Amino acid sequence: MKICTRFISFIMVTFMLCSVRATAQDLAISGTVVSKASGEYLPSANVVVKGTQLGTTTDVNGSFRLLLSGMNQATLVVSFIGYKTVEVRVTSSTSALTVSLEEDVLKLSEVVVTGLATSVKRTNLANSVATVSAQELVPTPTATLDGALSGKFAGITVSQNSGAPGGGIDVRLRGVSTINGANQPLYVVDGVIVNNSEIQSGVNAVTLAAAAGSRFPQDQPVNRIADVNANDIDNIEVLKGASAAAIYGSKAANGVIIINTKRGAAGKTKIDVKQQIGFTSLLNKIGTRRFANVAAARTQYGAAGEREFQKSNGAFIDYEEEVYGQKGILNETTLSLQGGTDKTQFYLSGLYKNDEGIVKRTGYEKYSGRLNLSHRLSERLDFSLNTNFLRTSADRGLFGNDNSGATIGITLAFTPSFLQQQPVNGVYPINPFNSANAIQTVDLIENNELVHRTISSGQLTFNVLRSRSQTLDFILQGGIDFFSQENQSYFPNELQFEASSPLPGTSIRGLTDSRNTNLYLNLVHRYTTPSNFSFRTAAGVQFENQDRNNVLTVADGLPPDQKSVDQGSSISVAQNVVLQRERGFFLQEEVDLNEKIFLTAGVRGDASSTNGDTKKYYLFPKASASLRLSQYDFWQGLSSTANEFKLRVAYGQTGNLPVPTAKFTSFVPANTGGRGGLLLGDVRGNPDIKPERVKELELGFDAALFNGNGILEFTYFRKNVSDLLLFRELPPSSGYASEALNGGEMKATGVEVSLGLTPLRRSNFTWNTRVNFYTTDAEVTQLDVPAFNVLGFADVLGRYRIEEGKSPTQIVGRENGVLVALGDETPDFQMSFKNQVKLGNFELGFLWDWKNGGDVINLTRLLTDLGGTSGDYDTGAAAARLSKFGTLTSIFIEDGSYWKLREADLSYSFKKETVNKWFGGQLSYLRLGVSGRNLILISDYSSYDPEVSNFGNQAIGRSIEVNPFPSSRSLYFNVAFGF
Prior knowledge:
- This protein is mostly beta strands.
- Helix content is 9%, strand content 49%.
- It has 12 helices and 50 strands.
- The radius of gyration is 30 Å and the shape is globular.
- The model is unreliable at 10-24 (pLDDT under 50).
């Protein structure tokens, strides 16, 4: 801490010694900034004098005024979010100025975050940073924010863990960066790191589904970033690699997703209302066997099959339709108000969302309220406050793997289509072929997750120094993210699988309180020389605390109709408390040489309570450079084809903190002579444990094509991961079974390409298109422990294996008794195709996702084969597969390639004259539309959806399917209007 304090003090003293000089000449300029398309005023636009730190913002009427001492001419740089930046030359003879800004569809002029307190124009950026605007993010409603990112840019892989409403989502940036560590990106909302935990519900107490080599049981929990209301987001910036994310240090090995929420603007208060209503339905059916006669039933199920077939008169009951056939109603209502004065701006919003699932008694409900305030306390002091209150409730049923025959998907695999399972006079028939009646399970169980959450942040910016050539800002930023999660699961004793239990009737209650706090102290100095060289120095310190308390209570042997856990005849309680403390500092220098060369260098230092040495600061450096060839005279002959061309190179390091328990020796409860106590467990702590380290080199170029009507971005990256968090077995003589260690290395390379075009632009017709391409390969280059299996149930069923010289995502299995590599989860490549067409007042948009390659272990098909219910059973295909079961694993490993129509939307905006005529000038706009999500799936995969994960968000071992909650398609109708 002394190091941090002395360092910041030195920086402040150095800045304060800088000198200022001025002359007596004055240049007074006034003007107005408007939108070129609509002619509307643009309040809060930035107007800066080129080559200086002088500038202002426009007021509520889009007006500005500058008094420039010691100048008789100047170049003004005018910018506004979402519009192209323009430069205007002014002199003492310039009269009232009107600056018209054109919409920047291809984002050539946008400003991108480059550090914890700084940003830079994209044209100067030396890293590949993806951005997603509010309009791009949610043209179609989505249950969760992370799910809305799919297909939006190159370098991202988004997969759902479950098709249930509000189900978990896995987000990968540039592939795999760890084996056993945290594998999700770091999320930053309005400058504050937020919690993205996955908290288990505890239903494995009923399903008996163990971890099977993963960190958690097979519960497929939701990520807590899903709580954030996507409609409140103004833009998202994605730092995909270590070269861009290094400034976030030991938490950024998996990339950083920076979320900026909407803010108010000076001017008349605007009210926006949007109502969407629709329905959801099953995306894809796998088919159910139809038994032709009683002989087929008897052959498959024996005497019980013959009896049940005759009892139902050979009826065909499509249980996929019975269980997954509900047309769930979707409802989303949003309301927002924004406005303010030149000094105070506000944004206020509310959301109500209620999505019913395709399975009865499943669904997702969300309430959200947000208030964002910005206030200028004085000419030198600005303050902002962001507060978000959330309440979510999810009912996801009971799906996935289990070892008790209780989950709905596995029950259906062993339920023949002639078996009557609907209740008769309130009594559910017994399923003689499995331990559960799927209809009864759907109707009677409860599996609810209720979350109350508050995310608040504030920022105070004090301008310590301001002159023509330099500024110095002190930024104090802090925030808190608190949520309370309650999981309530209830399995009444009349359930078939409960009735056969020694203690029928189970209630599970999980209570989790989580609190994250952040405090940042930053200094930012900007200095511009007369030759238009700019220097920006940023330094700061951060303090972060994470506290979580989880209590899980399981009660068995409940009396009828009792849910309270204290009523059970057998009660077990488990508690997990996590206290994590982190502190860090950073220093970053950015140099802009006349907007031709842009250089960045920085370092981040982090200390954490999860490391073996809690006082040691681990350093994570970064450096980058960009060269704008198009700014040189020799490029003029090429400017008609590529009016902007930039080369870039970047290097950076990030870390991945060890799990909090890695340095501690475990204890287990013991009882001696009736007295409780503790004994050493079988896991030995490692006092030398430290963060995993990612080193990445990134090369690329960016080109603006055809006079700003196209943009091409190319990136090659190579990253090396060292100090991998692994576990090794210990000899029995040590007294322990295993311990964590840092050992082994992994490398990954990849290519990202993005092409954005405006092929046609006319007065009443515009077509914008964007294509993203991404491919990556990884290899374990060093392994300090013997090769080991990561996830899977058995070699004959397929599993993941970590071996030196092999891909970390390889799938292995038995082929005639020999363990061999049979596939790989990583696809050959991924592409997305986004199109937006505007014709008059109509606007059409759609997004296609294409994944080529990437294998999936499909155990759903194995279970339906074993249960005799596969749709292709009578063709002999199932019998052929089963004849190889136990000998050939490859029969259940499938190509997971697919095409998906991820989003589609069509809207019509009524002319302003029509709206004024209909509503007497009360409405500012009126828009009607229809939209859909996951409308089409094209794939040879034989189950519901190749985009699935039985084990949830695991670094290794995602692509295993075991009777999941199926995916669904959604269709919405919407109306939007404003005042």
